[in-house]
Amino acid sequence: MNRTAAVSIRLDGVRKQYDGGTVAVRELSLELPAGELTVLVGPSGCGKSTILRMVNRLIEPSGGRMWLGDDEITAVDPIALRRRIGYVIQNVGLFPHQTVRDNVGTVPKLLGWPKGQIAERTAELLDLVGLDPARYADRYPHELSGGQRQRVGVARALAADPVVLLMDEPFSAVDPIVRGRLQDEFLRLQQTVRKTIVFVTHDVDEAVRLGDRIAVLSEGGKLEQFAPPAELLAKPANTFVAEFVGADRGIKLLAVTPIPREGLRPMPDAPDGAPSVPADGSLRDALAALLEGDTGWVVVRDGADALGILTPEDVYAVLRR
Ligand SMILES: Nc1ncnc2c1ncn2[C@@H]1O[C@H](COP(=O)(O)OP(=O)(O)OP(=O)(O)O)[C@@H](O)[C@H]1O
């Protein structure tokens, strides 16, 4: 078996009651597909962090069963388990007295990798998260910006090529601009590494932007809906989900709905400089281009080819489908 290939995570009737009586998770069953990014989203205190920390056994469940691929999570040694799981938290928790290089190399060192291999892997990962190793590897955490520290946290979590990455509000301590940039970079990174990722946030916009699938939870870890972002926004399962995703869910839906390739209106004799949008863009991109121009339509382009045009009515019709 390939120890680093992405695997699914399965929860079956999982429950957590803390000492003192709080039932953080009443009974949760959920399957998170291999190689996908699943977001757990829900109001404060609904049990998101508890669920995440049961997966790497920082918290022991009170009942139910969990699997990482074919391995039952509670049946394997927790230390060995955690070596297969990267974990990124808010404010990262980098070791302050260690350089970036040593922070990133922590787990490979624990695993007894040869020095040369650790150095190579560290440089590769810093590159991957957008930090030039020559410039940053010998710095200490306090010599970095908040966003750079988060990147080091992600590099450290990926160091030993874990099968799963657990991320608990990893980007919430940085300002919105840096946060947007980290989200974009992170999406690019996931295209490359294709890990099974569980990502906790209370921010619906972040969930919609990053998630292949979103699990909306209410108090007691109750699963209200589990669906891809477009489905969640277009068809919220109940009023809790509808209210949680917000009254502007139609606007959010624009950003996660692709421009249709079929059924576009034929090109009129386009004046030069007519607004255009790439075919792999979203309806939001199309609407933005429409609002910039005054033609009342926008050309959908695939490279140099014009596939047809979209009007505001078409955008509306696609959303209503
Ligand atoms: N160690 C603990 N002992 C007792 N109760 C706890 C403990 N940790 C969490 N809880 C309680 O369990 C419930 C779920 O907490 P949890 O941290 O999982 O929620 P969350 O959805 O991650 O919240 P937030 O978005 O605010 O981080 C809360 O009611 C919380 O007070």
The shape, in one word, is globular
Please give the domain count: 2
Q: Estimate the helix proportion, in percent.
A: 25-40%
- CATH fold topology of the largest domain: Rossmann fold
Q: What would you say the CATH architecture of the largest domain is?
A: 3-Layer(aba) Sandwich
Please give the number of β-strands.
Answer: 13
What separation lies between the terminal Cα atoms? 43 Å
Sheet with the most strands: spatial strand order: 6-7-8-3-9-10
Write the element-wise H/E pattern from the N-terminal end onward: EEEHEEHEHHHHHEHEHEEHHHEHEEH
Radius of gyration: 22 Å
Fourth CATH level, the homologous superfamily of the largest domain: P-loop containing nucleotide triphosphate hydrolases
- Total helical elements: 14
Biggest sheet descriptor:
6 strands, mixed
Strand content is 15-25%
